[in-house]
Write a structure and sequence with these properties.
By secondary structure, this protein is of the alpha+beta class. 30% of the residues lie in helices and 24% in strands. The radius of gyration is 28 Å and the shape is globular.
Length: 779
Amino acid sequence: MNDAGVPVLKEAAWRAVGVPRAHESATLHVLGQATYTDDIPEVQGTVHGALGLSSKAHARIVSTDFARVRAAAGVLAVYAVGDIPGLNDCGPIIHDDPVFADGVVMYVGQPIFIVVAETHGQARRAARLADIVYEELPAILTPQAAKAAQSYVLPPMRLARGEFRQAFEQAPHKVRGELYVGGQEQFYLEGQIAYAVPKEDKGMLVLCSTQHPSEMQHVVAHALGLHSHHIVVECRRMGGGFGGKESQSALWCAAAAIAAFNLKRPVKLRADRDDDMLVTGKRHCFHYDYEVGYDGDGRIAAARVDMVTRAGYSADLSGPVATRAVCHFDNTYYLSDVEILAACGKTNTQSNTAFRGFGGPQGAIAIEYVIDEIARNLGRDPLDIRRLNFYGGEGRNVTPYGQVVIDNVIGDLVAELEASSDYRARREGVAAFNRASPVLKKGLALTPVKFGIAFNVTHLNQAGALVHVYVDGSILVNHGGTEMGQGINTKVMQVVAHELGVDMAHVRATATDTSKVANTSATAASTGADLNGKAAQDAARQIRERLAAYAVELYGGDVEAVRFAADMVFVNGHEVRFPELVQKAYLARVQLWSDGYYATPGLHWDPKTMSGNPFSYFAYGAAVSEVVVDTLTGEFKLLRADVLYDAGRSLNPAIDIGQVEGAFIQGMGWLTTEELWWNEGGKLMTHAPSTYKIPGVSDCPDDFRVALYNNSNATDSIHRSKAVGEPPLLLPFSVFFAIRDAVSSVGEHKVNPPLNAPATSEEILNAIAAVEAAVAQGA
């Protein structure tokens, strides 16, 4: 111990990053004291809105009569398309997404008007009283129908390398087929909500649950015919987002702001769960046609996939989603001669949008499905076929879009997981179990992941931050990222604490606010901690350098030798408490606040040629899943999951492991239980927890082993960490293929089960019946 009571060795050993720390709001969450948008005390005069929704999938609006709505109890006003002061648009890229339907409705659930009443219940009841006459039009509901009709929201895209057709025809073995993978509802715990409060001189404060405050600022400004500086958007935290609040919070913000602007009163618009699910877009479902050529060992020689998505009635983010699907079809595999086609089918359904993974999972699952078939056709273990096709070595390290894979750890990572999970022994055990069990069948699968990190659109890869050091030594940080439970504030606070050498308890993060950090990108694409952490580090570094220079003025020595650690400043043999140095610096008029900025280097993308360097780096992972399937009922149970994920030098291992666990279960839900179903009239029938089944506690495996791979990011990311938001969602591919493995055992692994996702009990039974029929026919 020194005179200040600080251990001498603490300076060298001390760190604020790379250590497990509790979520900065954990205590508030547990105590129920965390403030969400609906918890904010309402301003005097606040009224409530509800949306009036279309009951038709595609129709002309012949007439609207709001007399009964206006006469309902508590109703103050009704606003429709003619009451919008500015633009009737909330589309994030292409302006094809109206706030309120204008003459034509494009899906069941499309907003036509907003009713404002004294209470939330009054507004909801009144919204159902409108008398609307429709002239119905033909509706397209599936991606296959959209493709047949050549109905697209954007021009189809194509990525090609080599000569697919020639290589395919020369390949000694071929596999052709089709696959359907359904969409997924984000099912955030907190629904869509916006609270618009008019301010002086045409100003508007919008408090909302959004992943993209700057986009909400633009949308509201356009809808009101104002400039961005009139609008302030604030978000302290979300009760989940998962992509569903990236662009689709815009409708709710715009509608609330339009009502508040016209009525000159604060308006809160909070969606009921049923309305939320009817109105908002989901993960894109995909339909695939594929043909792949391979040699006798299982090495892929040529691959072609034709993907079509259910985009919905407008473009929204379907273009970037399809692009990411195209760029992830390769997953961890080198494809020499390849053709990848993707189209965004225009359908009379909700406009689908971002969802954790953003097209990456939909792209990668197709090649995994193919490899699973190749292995079965050759009578080989799928892991051996996967390993044979991995990226690796000169000439096999360039993606189809031209990016060099410089940090390929997938081989070593998979080898480590194979050993730690006892994969080979368990494979033999599964086979032995199935031989002795006529009804219950087990399945086992190991699947790998390679996921690119960065926004597809290069200019979005930038971030800003503000860091204030107060006279008492406490620190306040504001950045452009939004907190949705994933721990971005915690990680940014750790970065700032580490840079200034103080305990995290001295750092506080404030609500994301467009009046503090402007022109921010969405908290999406797994870039939240990467971008905002770097920006906050830049701001804190500038303050640290000023304090270091001032410390040298006081105590002498070399600026480069000054160290900040353990709430102390070590300078030229002196040990000064951080608050003490800050107080002296303030009196000496040293600037104690700074802005920070970061733009990810080395990114470029040409959408015309579908080539470039779209990703800053790749995150890797792998998972082994063991399931048991009841062949009489189609039910399955995940018995054990072993997961190994590459988070680089993790900023916070506790939070990262939690993110991997959550992503795994969420991805498992997408592939097994979460089925979206529309009736013939185009109405989404699975629009509530009673009909839409997310995984429950009982669906989690009793044996769940999650570990972080020991690796350092080769790219100069924040403290050499790697993103952990989206990539782990691909790990439960292993669950889907373990189910397919169990079903395949019904036919002694001689038949490829035609299993689509989600693998519901009905889908599993259909696949079992198809295998049994094929075996009977072959016999």
